[in-house]
């Protein structure tokens, strides 16, 4: 398992797209915080909910989205270029290969989240200081804004691996995730929040501490997000173990 994990981490470091994702995370997070911070009236910035959005929203959402794509690429790239066959020849225990990919993706998701959270806090606090606004965040909210995106990014990276193992086609997997997140789940949440809040995307948003009344509490959201991840991992394991490559 250790050798396989090392191999998967090496693959991540050598995939150029992952480096581009990291640059995109940095740019989008900084841009979002700065635009939000300087376009919002000072009277609104004093609100705790607004500060939670300013500091937590952009970093968490960017980390979660791109962590999902990293998980997808880690699996679908192997099927796209045919390297999955030598991978399974080197390690015939397919469950071990999948577990290593899940662990490598989770570690990458954590790295993305740490970078995004750090940038969000530094840029957000700098904006508040520049606009002469006092920090209204409580210690509880700060803990959620720090730990929530880290946990959410790790889980969504594992979801990406699982979805990639289930779909296998790279373009199809990416399109499926984008359409589901931006259209299907968004519509369900808008129409029936009591149901939509239990879907994986909304659960991870709540886990990240987003100030939306329709979302679950962070603790409940963590349980729901873990449950979705476990379900997808189980399905991906069955498909990986019992299907041809």
Q: Measured on Cα atoms, how large is the radius of gyration?
A: 19 Å
Q: Tell me the domain tally.
A: 1
Unreliable residue runs: none
Structural class: mainly alpha
**What is the CA–CA distance across the termini?**
21 Å
Note the run of SSEs as H and E: HHHHHHHHHHH
Number of strands: 0
The number of helical segments is 11
Q: Estimate the helix proportion, in percent.
A: over 70%
Biggest sheet statistics:
none
Strand content: under 5%
Average pLDDT, all residues: 88
Q: Which descriptor suits the 3D outline?
A: globular
What are the defining features of this structure?
single chain; globular; mainly alpha; 245 residues; 84% helix
Mind explaining what this structure looks like?
With 245 residues, this protein is mostly helical. The protein has one domain (2-242). Helices cover 84% and strands 0% of the residues. The chain has eleven helices and no strands. It has helices at residues 2-14, 16-39, 42-45, 48-81, 84-90, 94-130, 139-167, 170-191, 193-196, 200-207, 218-242.
Set down the secondary structure blueprint:
Elements: H1 2-14, H2 16-39, H3 42-45, H4 48-81, H5 84-90, H6 94-130, H7 139-167, H8 170-191, H9 193-196, H10 200-207, H11 218-242
Helix pairs in contact: 1-6, 2-4, 2-6, 4-6, 4-7, 6-7, 7-10, 7-11, 10-11
Short overview:
The chain is mainly α and 245 residues long. The chain is built from 11 helices and no strands.
